[in-house]
Design a protein that fits this description.
Blueprint: H1 2-40, E1 45-49, H2 53-66, E2 77-79, H3 83-87, H4 98-110, E3 116-120, H5 127-138, E4 142-148, H6 152-157, E5 163-167, H7 172-195
Parallel strand pairs: 1-2, 1-3, 3-4, 4-5
Organism: Acidovorax bellezanensis
Pfam family, one: SIS_2
Protein name: SIS domain-containing protein
Length: about 200
Amino acid sequence: MLEQRIQQHFIDSADLKYQAAQALSLPIASAVQAMLACVTSGGKVLACGSGPSVTDAQMFASLCVTGFERDRPELAALALSPQGGLLGSLPASGGGGNAVHYLARQVRALGQAGDLLLVLSVTGNDPCALEAVEAAHERDMMVVVLSGRTGGTLAARMRETDVLVCVPHERAARVREVHALVLHCLCDGVDAQLLGEQEMPL
């Protein structure tokens, strides 16, 4: 029984990836072009997520700096600090809404026009992610959102120049699995544009 349950996870994940490949390839390609324009013009990528997606944002920024599957110059990318360590230093005045603003504050402190904000949010309704997108728009930054389901409130906050990559599934685990693949596609796509096409490594 347990083995069948495990096998079903693999089947469901593979089915979703197969179904999403065609629908997501265009927005992912648009996100690659946005990233490429950002880093080749001297900008940087700020990556952030909420909940389990925090580690995905950190992994993505690390791959930008250290390289994906090929040796190349470092790309300017930074994962914004997760909530924990930052909140202790925030002033308590002003109504106590600081827990929502921890990402937006970092975007305002570090972001500038020409930079790109990459946001990972399974539901698209995380208040901290919404605040971060608003802060990025204030800084004239482009935004790429990786979400799931319908894209939530974030989808409605996107500008025409932003990119929404929305995984068509309700289950958070399946959405995060596709997000991991999308991040790999972004890294590989930028490398292919910078270094030229090559066969997929074994």
